[in-house]
Amino acid sequence: MAYKRQIDRLPIIPADAQEFNVTCHYCIVGCGYKAYTWPMNKQGGPAPDQNKFGVDLAQQQGTETEAWYAPSMYNVVRQNGRDVHLVVKPDVNCVVNSGLGSIRGARMAENRPSKVTGTQAQRLSDPLVWRNGVWQPTSWDDALDLVARVTAKVVTQGSEDDLVVSMFDHGGSAGGYENTWATGKLYFQSMKVRNARIHNRPAYNSEVHSSRDMGVDELNYAYEDYELTDTIFMVGANSMETQTNLYLNHMVKGLQNGARMIVVDPRRTLTIASSEQFAGPGNVLHLAIKEGTDMALFNALLTHIVDQGWVDAEFIANSTFQGGEAVAQDEAHPAGLGSLDYAMQTCRTSLDQAAEICGVSADDIRKAAEWIAQPKDDGSRRKCVTACITSGPATTTRPRSTPPSSSGCTSGGPTW
Predict the structure, then answer these.
(1) Is-contact 22 81, C-beta < 8 A?
(2) Cβ neighbours of residue 415 under 8 Å, at least 6 residues apart?
């Protein structure tokens, strides 16, 4: 921010500053932060008993010292009717981020409204439209009219399938999907938009592909699983860039412990390049499929895994529907739901079929299935964590009608 670019000194947090536990509200990772406030006419000192860190600040600190915060973590805000210093910095004792701060979370203090430092001026009061090379304020009527006319033009010149919308959907304390419920109803129900880029999937939204229908609740595993797994199966996510703390603090540990990674993404992302550095190129498989062909890939993986017998037959027999079709395909259900045998009748896709549809080799699809589910040499089951569109730039396809070759059935891999 402009008002902080020349800062060369920040106040020391006094030992008796108020301390609060804070969770970053920008995504579903849940990184822990500490917030400190204290009066404007007071600050701490370099002696250990004079500062909140309890260290001798007269000495040079280490490169990863806790006794430090950046200008972006500082502000002056109103608290109980008076101006106070505010620092919001990563919590080194939080197991989620272990002191790491994202580019958004590390600016939570800076983004608080403040008439003293000028952050209040950054808050939008009107819609902005890009005209004549600059962002210009406009009325709501003008903004809505512009969106409506552009949308209608796209549909009339092409089709409804040419519409791609982008909307935020923050988890944590920012409201979750309820905050954009009206937007979701407009796009998915009224406009029948099939392609959406949504920031997150904190709960019951379009990015959770039939998981509840399969009896699997969302976000149903711990971050520690990334450290203990044999395989990380990532679909449409770019966690190194979009959930950096989760990637660095948990996924990287898994890669360093010997885990392999499969990334399904039309693009070569920073996550792929970074994972190759940690795990070695031979342990990272990039399935650069054609856009919109992910269901064909999933069905081929499911088909190969089932045909090879790499399934938990006892669990399937005891815990899943066994009577063929449970829910028939209709207007409310784009694909029928039922037993594993029923799914194999409608979802069966060979490796060669998927290779032709997806634009990747059958050998790579076979390798992905092996990394996901092939038992180890000692006969024990392979552990696989499935990370589907955890955050950031990703596209989810919502088919209105589902041909047999790209059914709505998804395997997701044997998540443990």
Answers:
(1) no
(2) 216, 220, 221, 384, 385, 386
